[in-house]
Design brief:
This protein is α+β, with helices and mostly antiparallel strands. The protein has eleven helices and eleven strands. A hairpin with a 2-residue loop joins strand 7 and strand 8. The longest helix is centred in the C-terminal third of the chain and has 17 residues.
Length: 308
Amino acid sequence: MTAVFTDVESMQAAVSSIMVPLQLTAPLDAPFQVQVSSAHAGEVAVARIEDGQGLVDRRHRLITSTDPELFMVTLDRRGAVCGEQDDRRHRARRGELMFLDTTRPYRLRYDDPCDAVVLMVPRASFGRHADVLRRRTATPLAGDGGTRAVVSAFFTGLGGQLDHLPGPSGAPLGHALTALLVAAVTRTAPERVDPATELADKIAAYALVNIADPGLCVESVARRFAISPRKLHRLFAHRHETFAAWLREERLRRVHHDLRNPALAQRTVAAIAARWGLYDPAHLSRLFRTRFGQTPAEVRRLAPRQDP
């Protein structure tokens, strides 16, 4: 898809549908005409934005639990971009990759008309590397040598080939794009990943996709991957917890986040918990008191009335 936009509101709606909800602000003293092209390779969305200028904001009030958990990856083919997330603020030059976590607020500033390639990659696709990326957001990766130079050149060229991407059915290419990004971050070849760790990453990705299923448990996942429950727990030993403990933490964290979200204040605690596969109120209350020192009702009562 390729479209030319002459007003900020239309472009904001289009870009938000391709990526995640965003707020765009353009300079008042410059004509506005931006071309946006987009395509998919499996679950990876790829966009090229030409002649865009101004601010891109992912604010607290735009983030909800219904948004997909993604990493946004930017590479400018022509100019530079300033990125901010958490306490990091850096300027990425032409050909440099920058990662941003869409589950947390961030800002991008393009001082000059850009020619940017943007990828939206599911967090689960990065497996164990996702935690490394979370600590390196808004930090440019130079593309001037070694593996990163190859990856930078590839994604720079990808911006001119969007018409040839296979679409949602092209999962193998999507996996290959993700592997290249992992190589850029780690400076090592993707094939060097330990097989056991790779299987654990696949299981974690599967579990996160199906986390709302109340039937998701040790036994069902072990059957899905044709392994024993004991082996499943061993695979998660590098995380210093069992699979059951990891899954419980992922569910509790999401319920806790939703209970503190003012936009979901009209939903019952039971409805929010069910959304993440937890259906026993008494058990949920015990888990919350152990994990957070508060019951779900107390978390909701003490939540901020509006986003900062």
